[in-house]
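Quick one:
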Amino acid sequence: MTAPAKTGQTTPKKSSGRARKSYADRAGMNKRASVILAKAIFTKPEVIEDDNGNVMRVWKSSEMSSYSNADIASTLLNRVAVEANEMLGTVPPSAIKYAVTKGWLVTGPSKTLYRVTLKGAIELNLPMRFKGGDNHGRRIPFLVPAKPAR
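Output:
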């Protein structure tokens, strides 16, 4: 028997039905967590500065609920009182309202200054004594709100 003559034509290869995944798919770069992380690294938040030098973040409507108790605690650390403009660099306005509702902050007579309450210090695990500076080691005088008269 003789071998069949080659005609120069080859039969096309059949695909297996599965295309090879791209590098991004194989490495997990298209997964939700990776996309969120990339946005967090490369997208800088918009900020404005007021007359007093406070840097305030411009919060988007989608970011209004993106805060935690730890974020609120970090803004109140080693503080007796805080202005809303100082807090807006770290937490959105809804977080300030939440802290007031929970009783962690109380507005003063000027309505621009918030006092940190003892309840807020306890629930947010804030230090009870100052750390560093001239007041190092002294107790932080948190506000103890007066109970309403019955």
